[in-house]
Amino acid sequence: MATILISIVLLALAIAGIAIRILLKKDGKFSGTCSSNNPLLQNEGGVCGICGALPQEKCKS
Asked: What pTM does this model have?
């Protein structure tokens, strides 16, 4: 029972930490989150499905 309680507390702390990070981030934007802009994850010459940036460009959104 103690193990389950400790697990729930640690999970709650992790979720609270993520929430606090989102609240404190300027304009709610995170740098480098455009994973579909990763050249290793897409075909040659493909564009980002989210913002339309080429693999060598910075994310536009």
From this structure: 0.44
Residues 6+ positions from 39 with CB-CB distance below 8 Å = 55, 56
**Does one domain contain both 6 and 19?**
yes
Q: Cβ distance 55 to 39 under 8 Å?
A: yes
Query: Most distant CA pair in the chain: distance in Å?
Result: 54
Q: What is d(CA 26, CA 4) in angstroms, rounded to the nearest whole number? A: 36
CA distance 57 to 38: 10
pLDDT digits (tens, 9 = 90+) for 16-46: 998 888 788 766 566 555 655 565 665 565 6
Instruction: Give the domain range for residue 46.
Output: 31-61
